[in-house]
Design a protein that fits this description.
Largest sheet: 8 strands, mixed
Mean pLDDT: 94
Number of strands: 17
Low-confidence stretches: none
Number of helices: 12
Distance between the termini: 37 Å
Helix content: 25-40%
Radius of gyration: 22 Å
Order of helices and strands: EHEHEHEEHEHEEEHEHEHEHEEEHHEEH
Shape: globular
Bound molecules: nicotinamide-adenine-dinucleotide
């Protein structure tokens, strides 16, 4: 019987756990044994007793390493060197962001599977799409955090003391996180406008009932569905258009990313300087807003709060862990159709996520050294 081990994440801001008790129970139903590091779910309010009630065993970290065939995590563990040879490690390993990690894992003869490399457009991979599930949580939290930091109401409120105007919210980048931020800000009653460089995303913005901001550039969709970087002159025209639009908004949420390139600068200091005191700018991509720093709230000279928030999914640990655990169970079910792990490099999903195996890096993008 295959044993799946669940590791505690490194202490710090990370509060998620890779497998919830409910998901552990689902694996048990598939005749997979689950061992969980004691306290692994604690920061997401999943107690050791909940895992035991679901049929999992709660053990020490060393025992998880010693007994598991497959190890589940979110981030690569700090003690990668402690992983016994031949184990399978599954997580959001970001091997393209840290090429040395893949080399270390291959040298340790670990089979590494990274969910952030999943081919997202394959319909049978959608239940495993952890980037989407976590971006969805981050977009939701972004709207809440921006509403909390903003000194006014998001909705229009009619009271005996008068009527308040609704907040004007602009969301730059309407992928998974941006669309959820738009939907959540609208649910809170704000007047929301969205913007993206992909034409398809503009239709998504409109379908949520938000207004669409248009800037002077061609559709920048790539054949893989992701955005392509703007040419220098287009980026300049984009920044000028955004700079003209931004001052009328109370809240700006930015989520724009381009695979393999730095996050584009969309809100330069000059645009911040023209915003009203009390406005809020929240940068999920940390790079879209000039001067934003990760996990930091700063106040500009003219009273604009700038928040850099790269890991918001980690701050909604119950929802984010639940979604991630479902993605992990879907992947494990795919890898272990009969309860036994079977690697098949010809399978499109597996070829997409397999980083290294048998002492070698095998992923085509890593081998080419491209992002
Ligand atoms: P992402 O996190 O890479 O980027 C976020 C958004 O930023 C994207 O919408 C992108 O177009 C936008 N962006 C990039 N440069 C910009 C710029 N200069 N100005 C403004 N916006 C800019 O993207 P994501 O949210 O992970 O996914 C993006 C798209 O990928 C989805 O909307 C979809 O088309 C595709 N996708 C498909 C599936 C699927 O087929 N199941 C699943 C997930 C994502």
């Amino acid at each position: 019987m295959t044993i799946v081990g669940v590791l505690s994440e490194a202490p710090g801001r990370e509060r998620r756990v890779a497998l919830t008790p409910d998901a552990a129970g689902r694996l048990r139903d598939r005749r997979v044994r689950v061992v969980v590091e004691a306290g692994a779910g604690g920061r997401a309010w999943f107690g050791d007793g909940d895992y035991e009630a679901a049929g999992a065993e709660v053990v020490t970290r060393d025992q998880v390493y010693a007994r598991s065939d497959v190890l589940l995590c979110l981030h690569p563990p700090d003690d990668v060197a402690a992983l016994p040879e031949g184990r399978v490690l599954i997580g959001l390993l970001d091997p393209l962001g840290d090429l040395g990690l893949a080399e270390r894992l291959a040298a340790a003869r670990i089979t590494a599977i990274s969910l952030d490399l999943l081919p997202r457009t394959l319909s049978r991979a959608q239940a495993m799409d952890a980037l989407t599930s976590q971006a969805n949580v981050a977009g939701y939290k972004a709207a809440l955090l921006a509403a909390e930091a903003y000194g006014g109401f998001f909705p229009m409120l009619v009271t005996a003391a008068g009527t308040t105007r609704p907040a004007q919210v602009l969301v730059l980048g309407a992928g998974v996180a941006g669309l959820q931020a738009i939907a959540t800000a609208r649910r809170l009653g704000a007047l929301v406008t969205g913007y993206d460089v992909r034409e398809a995303a503009l239709a998504d913005i409109a379908s949520l009932g938000a207004s669409v901001l248009r800037a002077p550039h061609a559709d920048r969709s790539g054949s893989d569905g992701y955005a392509r970087p703007l040419a220098e002159d287009e980026a300049g025209a984009q920044q000028a258009a955004l700079r003209a639009a931004i001052p009328r908004f109370d809240v700006v949420i930015t989520t724009a990313k381009v695979p393999g390139a730095p996050a584009p600068l969309l809100v330069p200091a000059a645009a911040l300087a023209e915003m009203r005191p009390g406005s809020v700018v929240l940068d999920l991509a940390v790079g879209n807003v000039e001067g934003s720093l990760p996990d930091t709230r700063t106040l500009t000279e003219n009273g604009v709060t700038v928040i850099g928030a790269p890991d918001l999914a980690a701050t909604v640990p119950v929802a984010a862990s639940t979604a991630y655990a479902r993605n992990a169970v879907a992947l494990l079910t795919h890898l272990m159709p009969d309860g036994v792990l079977t690697l098949d490099p010809d399978d499109e999903v597996q070829a997409g996520v397999l980083v290294c195996h048998d002492g070698h890096i095998v992923h085509s993008r890593l081998l080419k050294g491209i992002r």
